[in-house]
Amino acid sequence: MNGEISLNYQVKEVALKDSFAFWQSFEDEERVLFYHPFQQQLIMGARRLKTFGPGESYRGYPFVFSTRTFFPTLKDPKWSGLGNETIAFQYYLVEEKAGQKLYYAHETADISAVPPKEFASHRHDYEILADDYQEWQELFQCAKQKVLAGKVQKVVISREIKIQCNTMVSVESVLKNLMEKNPHSFVFAYCKEGKTFLGATPEIVARKEKGQIMSYALAGTRARTADEEDEQGKTALLNDPKNRHEHQIVLDYIAKVMNTYSDEVLIGETTTLQLRNLYHLKTPLAAKAKENSSLTAWVARLHPTPALGGYPVAEALAIIARWEKHERGLYAAPLGIMNEEGDGIFVAGIRSALIEGRTVYAYTGCGIVASSECAEEYAETAHKAKTILESL
């Protein structure tokens, strides 16, 4: 995502002791953070400059941030105002191996607005407010009945875990912990009107680079435990029929979508992705688009994959909308960063939480197929929730 520097922005090399000094300097303003682990690139944006309409060019803007909600509409007030926008910010801090650069729109920008503050880590005391296992059992049984009845092959159901902290949540501290503890994940945050949606996701929805579209089937999960060697755990996951079946549903769907809009689709080898608490099955896919369609168009075609909603998609989404008691909002939805050429990457907002004041709503889910067991799937969601809990 290294497009030409736009005339709308000036660029200046900076040397902040801590990149979060930039983040803290815009404390009460709209902000975004996106860390790309493959490129080891951290982008922070602050203060909304422009909102783009459908199909509008990004020319003149080095980076734009874009979000969709899981379902098209929102009802829960805590998600109000979040999602379904593409935005350019007035300031960007970009940190790479080569150093830090500050992009700023307008010549009158006061660069001293980014002072080198010292950052202090914070450990939160918290409690999980309710035991939701009975609610989970009801949701699980409904989903599995639909699978066994042949209505769907798979449904991805989720939990909303409400956590109360004794103090205001330090978003900076949570983000630093997410980056340190999850070095192979995409770390993201979007702050607006006193609310922050953040997480550390391993899942790429779509990536576009010079006409090539890439995606990844990421489904099938095994807990990573201290009493098992990593190679043993990975091999067990690769050879597990239930997880291979769940993975194949996702892989087949993404390949089908890609083949609809491309003359050539390459499917890579299925391997394991090792994270802090889990292993996942992962298969890369690449396609060359028939026409010059945008990255956002590809995201709309692919979202939600069966890794996030289920299959067949429409039937699975109807079950989720009918039976999940919480609203997903930005959870499991696409969010991403693009350059002025429209190239960039969208990831799925999983291993994530919505933070407001002292309250954290953590989200976690898993795919239900015919061979799924209720207690095992609940335990899997608990392992996934560790990403957020450990960051507190």
From TrEMBL:
The keyword Lyase does not apply. Gene3D superfamilies: Anthranilate synthase. It comes from the Bacteria. Its EC number is 5.4.4.2. It is an enzyme of class 5 (isomerase). Keywords: Isomerase. Residues 133-384 form the Chorismate-utilising enzyme C-terminal domain. GO terms for biological process: salicylic acid biosynthetic process. It catalyses: chorismate = isochorismate. One of its GO terms (molecular function) is isochorismate synthase activity. InterPro entries: ADC_synthase, Chorismate_C, IsoChor_synthase. SUPFAM superfamilies: ADC synthase. NCBIfam families: isochor_syn. Belongs to the isochorismate synthase family. This is isochorismate synthase.
